[in-house]
Amino acid sequence: MWQKLQPYRSSIILLSALLIGGAIGIVLPEFALSLKPIGQVFLNLLFMIIVPLVAISVTSSIARMTDLRKLGIILITLFMVSIAMAIIPAVSIVGLALAFDPAQGVVLDLHQQVEASSGNMDFVGLLTTNDFVGLLSKSNILALIIMSVIAGIAIGQSGKDGEKVSAMLDSLNTVIMKIISILMVAAPVGLAAYFASTMASQDTELLSTFARAIGLFFVAAFFYFTVGSTIYAWLGGGVGGVTQFWKNAVDPSVTALGTSSSLATLPVNIRAANKMGIKEEIADICLPLLVNLNKGGASMTTALKIVFIYSILGLDFSADVFALTVLISVLSAFIISGVPGGAFLGEIFIVTTLGLPIEVIPILVIIGAVTDAPATLINVIHDLNATQIIERINGKRYKSETIIE
Length: 405
Fold this sequence. Notes:
Blueprint: H1 2-5, H2 9-27, H3 29-34, H4 36-65, H5 73-99, H6 123-127, H7 141-156, H8 159-183, H9 187-199, H10 206-248, H11 250-259, H12 262-275, H13 280-293, H14 296-312, H15 319-334, H16 345-354, H17 361-370, H18 372-393
């Protein structure tokens, strides 16, 4: 039994720790409040590493990708399809969450001003900073990501000198990931302590909002997996594409749920693509890149987190916030989720970009951990759909009568 649960080991430990922390906050509120410094130390350690993590990981990833620029239209198509398949689930879950408010009037009282995260957004300030030093602040993560992407492209286009820099960045990235792995040893204790202090002053009814939000996600994920995949398969190959997709989608789906890892499912996905009749050169190029770039499930989870937090904080979800939510969701799917070992990067990205109180980070972690399996399923299965669409754009047409054993 434990063997089957092994892929979810870290999520189970983290969720168990947060549940224990929440229980302590409700039963022993005074003791729970005294635990807040422990959680604060852990979060501060993460905040201290976030800037080098983003700068080095994103830059090195983009620098490696631009080695494939000679593939031209295929790579451009891949990027455009990935962006579209991140926007669609993000917008859909936002609309669903706004229509069926998971908070249902329950408000999280954090005793601090959070109005700065609502109202009109300064997009110039979010996307850029007027000084290089500004890039070294966690408050300017969005600007740092943009500059890291530009730097990665420049490195990839700098020939042998760029290769030397890229190799150095890969080595630095290995060190950064090791630092993250060391910090994550303390994650269950640190987050449990912080969540305990947060729950100490809250109404127990807050817990029911988690169930509503997660239930909403599971319903949306099931619909997007079945109906969305069918539509994408039709776009990729018509009726024959739909037939071949569902005929071969079971193995990667089961593997994704069993491993909760897009990377671990990659060999199964490639095998399924071959059985579907997708050209080997297309599958071999697209699927390894889509593992990091095409993460509609991650985009959906990120969008839900933002709507949920705004709802329980009683903040106005304005048009500006909606636009920023879609942008953050796309970046989470397109770049952040592709950063190996970037633990809690998505949660920190949401909090720092939107100016939200850091007390909400454990809440975001709970939603992310519980929705990880269905989100991974969507990520994996839509990699196959994206490959179908990319191949069709580049000239392939399915025939309804085609049968591939």
